[in-house]
Amino acid sequence: MITIAVALDNSGLLKSCDVWGHAGAGKRGSDIVCAAVSVLTRTALLTLSGREGIVVRGGPGERGVFTLETEALTGPGRDFLAAAGAFLLEGLNSVAGEYPQNCTITIERRN
């Protein structure tokens, strides 16, 4: 089971996304659920990294673990982070909705 924990600030801006576990939906290296979650989270990290006005920390850790922490410093950075975060959440919710036996997601709001 892949477990995804997303934290948003009070305005809905992405603060963090932590992923751990293995979906078990297919053979190692051929698991569509793991592949989908990996592509979404790694693309979010690459898209946000180096973007002016956004600080990004994290990335893939040991096998089956991924962390992403964000902080928007400026107006344009906040707007870009809002869009990228919405895209990431839509994708992850879609995967979890299609494969609930292999992937769960929780979303919390915090300051």
Q: How many distinct beta strands?
A: 5
Parts with pLDDT < 50 across at least 5 consecutive residues: none
Average pLDDT taken over every residue: 93
Biggest sheet layout: 5 strands, mixed
What is the global morphology?
globular
Query: Number of helix segments?
Result: 2
Distance between the termini: 29 Å
Helicity level:
25-40%
From the helix content, strand content and strand pairing, which structural class follows? Answer: alpha+beta
Oligomer: single chain
Question: Measured on Cα atoms, how large is the radius of gyration?
Answer: 14 Å
Helix and strand sequence? EEHEEHE
The strand line-up of the biggest sheet is 3-4-2-1-5
Q: Beta-strand percentage? A: 25-35%
What does this structure look like?
- Helix content is 37%, strand content 33%.
- The chain contains 2 helices and 5 strands.
- The chain has a 5-stranded mixed sheet, with helices on one face.
- Helix 1 (32-48) runs antiparallel to helix 2 (75-98).
- The termini are far apart.
List the SSEs and their pairings.
Layout: E1 2-8, E2 14-21, H1 32-48, E3 54-60, E4 65-72, H2 75-98, E5 103-109
Parallel strand pairs: 1-5
Antiparallel strand pairs: 1-2, 2-4, 3-4
Helix pairs in contact: 1-2
Which terms would index this structure?
single chain, 111 residues, alpha+beta, five-stranded mixed beta sheet, 2 helices, 33% strand, globular
Question: Could you provide a short overview of the structure?
Answer:
The chain has helices spanning 32-48, 75-98, and strands spanning 2-8, 14-21, 54-60, 65-72, 103-109.
